[in-house]
Structures are given as structure tokens and as C-alpha cells.
Amino acid sequence: MNQAILFPNIQSWDEKRQVVQFAAQQSGALIQCFVEKAKLEQLTMTTIANQEQALSVFAQCRFDLEEIAEELIEEEAFDDEGHIVIG
User: What is the share, in percent, of the chain residues with pLDDT greater than 70?
Assistant: First the structure.
């Protein structure tokens, strides 16, 4: 793992967008990262019905999701708003 990219243990569920939001920090800059509900369901082969399940599944897959986010940050694969979206 690249030590220049850090992932604080902060995450939240966005009901409207159906994503778990988490942060990455690179050279002092905060980067908002999102993982879509469908991706979480695909990774765990489960159905997510609520916020509690979404955050629990995120916690189970956190290491893998951070690796994916790290690769996307290094590839500068940001969306139009400067976010990383794993979908």
C-alpha cells in the first residue's frame, strides 16, 4: 500500500445516492470516495436493505475497497467533481 494515500476510519451511508462515502488523504488533500450499493452487493453476494447493512458490508470489504480506491487515485480516475467512484 502506498503510504502517501491514507484512509481515515470515517464512512457514512448516503441514502439518496445509495453509496457509502469514505475519505482518502493524499499529500494533505482530502479526496471523497464513494462505493455504490450494487458494488457492495456484488462483492459480498448479499442484498443490502438498510444503512446498517451497507456499513457492515463496507467494513467487511474495507481493505479491498481501499486498494481499489488507491489504484483509481493513482490513475487520477476522478469524476467531474473530483471524487473517486467505485461502481
Answer: 97
1 has pLDDT over 80:
no
Q: Tell me if residue 42 falls in helix, strand or coil.
A: helix
- Which pLDDT score is estimated for 3? 57
CA distance 56 to 38: 14
Cα gap 11→27, rounded to integer Å: 20
- Integer Rg of the chain from CA: 12
Least Cα distance to 22 among 64, 58, 67, 74 occurs for: 58
Instruction: Let me know: does 36 contact 83? Beta carbons within 8 Å.
Output: no
Point out which residues pair with 19 in neighbouring strands. 14, 36
Condensed to tens digits (0 to 9), the pLDDT of residues 49-61 reads: 999 999 999 999 9
> What distance in Å separates the CA atoms of residue 15 and residue 7, rounded to the nearest whole number?
22
